[in-house]
Write a sequence for this structure.
């Protein structure tokens, strides 16, 4: 027996949790939302860092992210990833002068995130327009308010200030970006989780969109094949595309390509749809959770958009908290009933 003896043996290191990590997107200054989320048992945050990093120089990215991480940690949260690009990226997406400077900022941000133990970036390539709805005040169950997209209404709104931008141009821009960034992310150990176009229609007000099908995602992943070139599986977007989301989630989980899940549902298809409560849509949400679990998904999952409920302001459509309270309870109940571990 060793010098320590059985009684003095060091305890085994705890086994890292492997499973779904419930998360929500916050700013560290959202103190009320953070307290409410902790009361729900949520301990993982999806952070936005672009605003902070855009106000400082590259040589201070490390300390800026360390400060954000500390602010979350002091309130009981671990950062599970960042969302909506770590730095401004509109020139990258549109292929405008100055994109190389944005790419250098992006690379520096990836390295700073890795240095601080943040290993997932949820990004998108929606040029000119972000996620887009034609209405945000559609009555839902009991008078709750939800959002809607109608392609006919979008066409009537006309072109944006960017005019017409072809899909071919967007393909060229994303290839340029991926070839510069994915090798750096792979070396740093940061997973790049690409979010689909929301809505998945092209063109949208004259701007080509390319993240509109599973086939196009496969093309993106083949531009720079890498274990860190993967997907934010916003399941409602893939449903709007007309994809078999059960089969697709199974395929990409097994391939270790789903790094982050946005767990929500819609009624309709890409040309016209509305968002709904998590228990009120056509998708078998329990089946989706089972697929994620059975096929090895162990990343963060957030409920994403939820209706605005009684007593809430609709100034942030999809992001008021009461609908999230309902969503987290529903998700946890489904997982408890099926014996699916979560943290």
């Amino acid at each position: 027996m060793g010098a320590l003896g059985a009684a003095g043996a060091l305890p085994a290191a705890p086994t890292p949790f492997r499973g779904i990590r419930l998360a929500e997107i916050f700013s560290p200054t959202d103190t009320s939302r953070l307290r409410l989320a902790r009361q729900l048992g949520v301990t993982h945050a999806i952070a936005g860092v672009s605003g902070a990093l855009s106000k400082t120089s590259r040589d201070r990215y490390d300390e800026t992210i360390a400060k954000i991480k500390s602010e979350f940690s002091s309130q009981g949260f671990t950062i599970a990833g960042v969302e909506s690009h770590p730095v401004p990226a509109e020139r990258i997406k549109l292929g405008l002068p100055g994109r190389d400077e944005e790419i250098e900022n992006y690379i520096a941000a990836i390295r700073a995130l890795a240095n601080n133990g943040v290993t997932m970036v949820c990004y998108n390539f929606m040029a000119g327009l972000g996620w887009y709805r034609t209405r945000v005040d559609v009555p839902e169950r009991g008078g709750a308010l939800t959002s809607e997209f109608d392609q006919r209404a979008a066409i009537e709104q006309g072109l944006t200030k960017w005019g017409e931008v072809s899909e071919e141009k967007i393909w060229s821009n994303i290839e340029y970006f991926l070839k510069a960034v994915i090798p750096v992310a792979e070396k740093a150990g940061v997973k790049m989780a690409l979010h689909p176009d929301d809505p998945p229609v092209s063109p949208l007000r004259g701007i080509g969109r390319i993240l509109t099908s599973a086939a196009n995602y496969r093309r993106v992943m083949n531009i720079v094949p890498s274990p860190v070139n993967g997907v934010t599986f916003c399941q409602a977007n893939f449903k709007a595309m007309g994809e078999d989301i059960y089969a697709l989630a199974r395929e990409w989980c097994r391939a270790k390509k789903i790094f982050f899940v946005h767990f929500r549902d819609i009624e309709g298809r890409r040309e016209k749809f509305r968002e709904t409560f998590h228990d009120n849509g056509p998708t078998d949400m329990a089946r989706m959770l089972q697929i994620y679990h059975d096929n090895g998904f162990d990343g963060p999952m957030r409920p994403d958009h939820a209706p605005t409920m009684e007593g809430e302001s609709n100034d942030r459509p999809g992001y008021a908290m009461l609908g999230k309270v309902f969503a987290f309870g529903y998700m946890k109940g489904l997982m408890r009933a099926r014996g699916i571990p979560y943290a």
User: Anything to note?
Assistant: Residues 1-7 have pLDDT under 50 and may be disordered. Residues 249 and 256 are 10 Å apart (CA to CA).
